[in-house]
Amino acid sequence: MNDLIQDLQSPVADAGTGFVRVGMPVSRVDGRAKVTGEARYAAEHPAHDLAYGVVVGSTIARGSIAGFRLREALAVPGVVEIITHENRPRMRSFDLFYKDMTAPAGAPFRPLYDGEIHFSGQPVALVVAETFEAARYAASLVAVDYLPQQHETNLMAHLARSHKPKPLKAGFSPPPDERGDAEAALLAAPVRIEAEYYSGVEHHNPLELFASTVIRGEDGHLTIYDKTQSSQNSRWYVSRVFGLGKDKVTVRNPYVGGAFGSGLRPQYQLPLAVMAALQLRRSVRVVLTRQQMFSLGHRPETLQRIKLGADHDGRLRAIVHEAVAETSRYEDYVEVVVNWSGQLYACDNVKLLYRLVALDQSSPMDMRAPGAAHGVHALEVAMDELAWALRLDPLELRLRNYAEQDQMKGLPFSSKALRDCYEQGARRFGWARRPLAPRSMRAGSELVGWGMATGTWDAMQMFARAGAVLHADGRLVVSSAATDIGTGTYTAMCTLAADALGLRLEQVMFQLGDSTLPVAPIEGGSSHVATVGSAVAGVCEKLRKRLFRMARRLDNSPFAKARFDEVEFAGGGLRLRRQPSVAMSVEEVMAAAGEARLEEKYLMLPKVLKQKQYLRATHSAVFCEVRVDEAFGTVRVTRVVSAVAAGRIISAKTARSQVSGAVVWGISQALHEETHADHRLGRFMNHNLAEYHVTVNADVGDIDVIFVDEDDRIVSAIGAKGVGEIGIVGVAAAVCNAIFHATGRRVRSTPMTPEKVM
Ligand code: MOS
């Protein structure tokens, strides 16, 4: 095993950081590299003799290409090549293999495959030049003749032709069969509500643009810096599509500037950059523009209908939840939208339906808490509507319907501290003082409202490997081909390893972001800490045992009679639990044993049979205060308390940042973010950060994050469940419910922009 990939520039904590324990609020080990600009992102890696590719996108949404007029563009000084479907290299794998995998899980839309146009913005040419400026200018001169066809991009106009999705995506669960008789139970219920909820298209907008720098070595080896949530997924994809052996391609992503799901599949700049590098036999970089980022995929526009029936005391008798979402013509993009409505509350009669409408646009894409961000939103607004219909406190309604077990199979939860979330969140917020009726609170010219909602997300674990090398000088290098999209993977893994061996944080380096490192899954589904963290804990446990055995065998060893469970790893080495003065540092043990390095590997396989006996999920309770100016319809979110149950928290500071960041995004979803399409053109129009409104600091008031006690050894050996996505679920619903409480007005469409609120 490589014990250190030197040029990966893996970050290490500042000297003097010292000893840390799991659960402590540790500052990011990659923080300094990021704020000083030392951390290099995919488009920032230098290469000798680098050519620059700029993508030309289709201006029509559907049809075909009749031809190109390239003379002017080719005449621009510095232009090397313009690659289109007409002149791209014939590559056996690309032509044969890729043909049948239009967009398999983990693969992007196939760019430059043929002359068919499937969506506006679809890449139709790659202009390659000696400089970025020349490529960009020449790209503006590329003329394409299209044979347009009638396109359909408007979900609301084509609801009638919805279809049942083909579940192509691994891990996707279609809605379960009906439980009980929901419609009959609904009719029999004394209290009923029914409503439609609409959510517009949202785009990911990570700060870092999608980019691939393909560096071609003398021997033809490709080292690719790619913006992706998995270096190994991109490596696999490039190998497969271009017929390049595993040893011919290395993909790296040591730093990723946000992704939120948009990097779960390689994006089209990767195959374009590789295609150009192979054809031109030189290094090539392709960076997308912010506008082009809007053609990669998005959170799908979704229309939902929910019917709830309850007894007078608030007990749920029936839940009917239907969702229709959009997808592309070439792929059924699926997400779990309605299933949580059969899981979150105790109810015997539940009917869940999920359908898609295929439109002439790019496939939607997973975006932070895909499905739940819409589905649980609608359910939680509907619950608030039911609470008001019953004149019951919204939190009390949730408590009366608390699910003690899985509603489908009767399985127990692996852990579920949602009651603690409700209790601690409500106390911190001051919920008990909430008047029941809307329009009861005012501050100056503004109406004040308090709303709450529940959140839930799956607690997943995949498999992973980790390697570790302990050096004689006490440095520990742990590695796995994991990814840190800004969530804190480096920090969490360093913390786990430093704690396991009792080392100072600055003694530990975690290497991630290189496809040659031990196998790790894609960073997605909030499963990375539970997965990679368990592999890191596993490899560290092997090192601990090795070190202990070595120490015990030393001449005159102070541990000669000790058992493994009688020592602890702390203070830079191992010591007797009962007599901490009996201690040896790692350096002392290694020196005495004459070892230069200790190396271990570990394969972490989830305990699937055990896990299947439980329902595994994270939970949250979100409490929110808004102030509404009725004259203008403006909403300010002045206070949010988010209480989260996500298992054992490994890295308290980065976890808190995840949840507060997710709350900010939830506010954004509630009030600001929406991509508008002009359906005459079949195109997203506000494709930039000036017109696509994202919540900024001035839009955010107090955010208070609580992690309630939970420790889930069924989801993961380290007790963690994952915090990446749970933080956003329920936030927009809490805002919506607070707006109702402030104004008495129910806004059933997001974003809740002023014209809908006033
Ligand atoms: Mo997440 S949407 O699984 O990156």
TrEMBL record:
Q: Which InterPro entries match?
A: Ald_Oxase/Xan_DH_a/b, Ald_Oxase/Xan_DH_a/b_sf, Ald_Oxase/xanthine_DH-like, AldOxase/xan_DH_MoCoBD1, AldOxase/xan_DH_MoCoBD2, AldOxase/xan_DH_Mopterin-bd_sf
Q: Name one GO molecular function term.
A: iron ion binding
Q: Which residues form a coiled coil?
A: none
Q: Which Gene3D superfamilies match?
A: Aldehyde oxidase/xanthine dehydrogenase, a/b hammerhead, Aldehyde oxidase/xanthine dehydrogenase, molybdopterin binding domain
Domain named Aldehyde oxidase/xanthine dehydrogenase a/b hammerhead is located at 36-150
* One Pfam family, short name: MoCoBD_1
Protein name as catalogued: Xanthine dehydrogenase molybdenum binding subunit apoprotein
Q: List the top taxonomic levels of the source.
A: Bacteria, Pseudomonadati, Pseudomonadota, Betaproteobacteria, Rhodocyclales
